[in-house]
Specification:
The complex is a heterodimer of chains A (306) and B (307). With 306 residues, chain A is mainly α. Chain A has helices spanning 2-10, 12-16, 19-40, 43-60, 62-65, 97-133, 135-149, 153-164, 168-177, 180-195, 198-205, 210-222, 224-246, 258-265, 274-301. In chain A, helix 6 packs parallel to helix 9 (168-177) and helix 11 (198-205) runs antiparallel to helix 12. The two termini of chain A are 22 Å apart. Chain B is built from 12 helices and no strands. Classes of the chains: A mainly alpha (306), B mainly alpha (307). The A-B interface holds A 44, 143-144, 146-148, 150-152, 154-155, 158-163, 235, 239, 242-243, 246-249, 259, 262, 265-266, 269-270, 273, 276, 280, 283-285, 287-288, 291, 306 and B 11, 14-16, 18-19, 22-23, 26-27, 30-32, 138-139, 141-147, 150-151, 153-154, 157-158, 165, 195, 242, 245-246, 248-249, 252-253, 263-264, 267-268, 270, 275, 278-279, 282-283, 286-287. Chain A: It comes from Streptomyces cirratus.
């Protein structure tokens, strides 16, 4: 409840303006306040938010937090167990594990956010056009979406990487190219149910043009599903990115990245287990963070969904 | 129904056509010479390169190449692979059997564990078991398959030597990869089952069935289960399609000789015919299973009328 009053207070300056424009401004702010209130009341969502915030902090301050250079090899000091100068030990080339895990968060954050953002941009554009115009536009756009949807994510991503080569940018693009159809489908189906709503009819009756109806009335009311999808799937994108590196087709092997670390650790199974346990923990906490935030966001945006 | 099937088949053809265009563009048109890495050092001899280009039809105009590509693909002729000079279908067939074995085992595990867990959680809502299952299924989503695979290897190969580390073709070596593949889906099936079952349990027709004195078992199996199972069937069908396309990670961890491992190795060797074979198979199976799932929908739920 305190959230609600705070949000209304936040809209204070608007109240000094003439009454008519102030009305919708307050209404919108309180709606977000309510969403935030519902989100923060959800324990798992808050835990998720803390995990994601930690990940971002580590990614930003990795150079300050890392005790060693993540690329620096020390061939006299290979495969040292955790403890001493190297808190989490060293790998087969004598590189500091802790530093490599900390730097690995950068790749995870960049690839996770960028690929989902790109997928959402394409997906929202296609889904909005298909959902609003229907008929021929809809069929053509949805068949194109079907084509990209038909590739299993990792297999499709590998095809793109064959063309573009390994690296961060190819990974981002390859994941986005095969993720956007889900966004389009989500948005389209949710637009189809919103399109016939009375307020859209009212807007059209008042003479609003197509652009305005899509941007101001339909999108805000059908975007909830997409936002929850995005938050939830940043985790999925990070897993996919690490999977590609694990298979040897992601970022180059010398880059400090969690999938790379696990691929290298695989050969020391049962002998040097610290090599895979710590990067695994980093991935699991990261993915769980985004999953909890996504679930919380879905419930907060639309309590009817669950 | 008949018209719907025909329309969906038409859509499927369009999608497959589009997928071949995407694949063709990626592997033939865009930069990167498939002959470049072929034949080791000898390939740098221009005469040999020319001979190889001629042999694989790489000198034909692109539309001709595309036509040949689709024609061969439609006839199931994937050509010879680049490294062993054997027909791709012959190489992939035994691997496909291995992958199918793995995928079917995984789906059976999904059905048994997922359905049971969801059922228990929904029937005994808020009980200890429900809380435990909800907690485990929520956590499972955060565990990528390579982490699950390595944890299972550590637990059941290193600590308790029950299973071999690397597959040796026996049933025993099937267990760990199958579980690695199944755990995430089993968790999602359990969540789905719990959610829909709770909804169905609240439905009026269930209340009616109980009120008119039907035995609990009849209510559970004839009314509740049959109606809760529909989203699960959808999910499992699509998931099975993905698994058949190659469980890349699982096969890589356990060195399982399936088409997923073949794809990863082919990428490293730039062995295009194998890549094309695995990718087009994966796409075709996925699209076909999607169609089957949609049709199954109508069989399972007569309220859905396909038109």
């Amino acid at each position: 409840m305190s959230e609600l009053t705070k949000s209304t207070a936040g809209a204070g300056p608007a109240q000094t303006a003439p009454a008519a424009p102030a009305e919708p401004a307050i209404a919108r702010v309180t709606q977000w306040g309510e969403i935030r209130h519902r989100f923060l009341a959800n324990k798992l969502a808050v835990i998720g938010l803390v995990l994601v915030a930690l990940l971002f902090l580590v990614a930003i301050f990795a150079p300050l937090l890392s005790p060693h250079d993540p690329y620096a090899q020390d061939l006299t000091n290979t495969l040292q167990g955790p403890g001493g100068d190297h808190l989490l030990g060293t790998d087969a080339l004598g590189r500091d594990q802790l530093s490599r895990i900390l730097y690995g968060s950068r790749i995870a954050v960049v690839v996770g956010l960028a690929s989902i953002f790109l997928a959402c941009v394409i997906g929202i554009a296609v889904g909005a056009l298909a959902g609003y115009f229907g008929r021929g536009t809809d069929s053509v756009l949805m068949r194109i979406a079907d084509v990209f949807f038909a590739f299993p994510l990792l297999i499709g991503a590998i095809v793109i990487i064959i063309v573009m080569g390994r690296g961060v940018t190819p990974v981002i693009i390859s994941l986005a190219v095969f993720s956007w159809p889900t966004v389009s489908r989500l948005l389209r189906s949710s637009i189809l149910s919103v399109r016939e709503a009375d307020y859209v009819l009212a807007a059209r009756a008042l003479g609003a043009n197509t652009r305005r109806i899509i941007l101001r009335h339909i999108l805000p009311n059908s975007i909830a599903a997409v936002m929850a999808y995005a938050a939830f799937n940043v985790g999925g994108a990070i897993v996919a990115e690490a999977s590609l590196s694990f298979l040897g087709v992601g970022v180059s092997p010398e880059v400090p990245e969690w999938g790379n670390m696990l691929a290298a650790a695989k050969d020391f199974m049962g002998v040097k287990d610290y090599l895979w346990t710590y990067p695994s923990i980093a991935i699991v906490l990261t993915v769980l963070g985004f999953v909890f935030v996504g679930d919380g966001l879905r419930d907060a945006l639309d309590p009817k969904l669950r | 129904m008949g018209r719907y099937v025909i329309r969906r088949l038409g859509q499927m053809v369009v999608v497959l056509f589009g997928a071949t265009v995407v694949l063709f563009c990626c592997l033939f048109v865009l930069p990167g010479d498939p002959v470049g890495s072929l034949g080791g050092d000898k390939a740098r001899d221009p005469a040999v390169v020319e001979q190889l280009r001629e042999r694989y039809g790489l000198n034909d105009p692109l539309p001709v190449q595309y036509g040949n590509f689709v024609k061969n693909l439609a006839q199931g002729d994937l050509g010879e692979d680049f490294t062993q000079r054997r027909p791709v279908t012959e190489i992939l067939q035994p691997k496909l059997v291995n992958t199918a074995e793995l995928a079917i085992t995984a789906i059976v595990i999904d059905i048994v564990i997922g359905l049971l867990a969801g059922l228990v959680a929904a029937l005994f809502r808020y009980s200890f078991w429900d809380v435990l299952i909800t907690l485990l299924t929520t956590m499972a989503v955060g565990f990528p398959s390579f982490v699950i695979g390595m944890v299972l290897q550590k637990a059941f190969v290193v600590e308790l030597p029950w299973f071999p580390l690397i597959s040796d073709g026996t049933v025993n070596s099937l267990i760990l990869p199958a579980f690695t593949l199944a755990i995430l889906d089993a968790a999602l099936v359990a969540r789905l089952m719990r959610g829909t079952m709770l909804e169905v349990l609240r439905a009026d027709y269930v209340k009616t069935a109980i009120a008119k004195g039907l035995p609990r078992r009849t209510v559970l199996f004839k009314h509740v289960m049959r109606n809760s199972i529909i989203p699960v069937v959808t999910y499992l069908g699509i998931s099975f399609g993905t698994l058949l396309g190659g469980a890349l990670i699982t096969e890589a961890i356990f060195n399982w000789d399936g088409i997923g491992l073949a794809l990863v190795q082919a990428v490293q060797q730039q062995n295009n015919p194998i890549i094309i074979g695995v990718v087009s198979f994966g796409v075709a199976v996925f699209v076909l299973l999607n169609l089957i799932v949609d049709l199954l929908y109508a069989v399972l739920d007569p309220r859905i009328r396909l038109a």
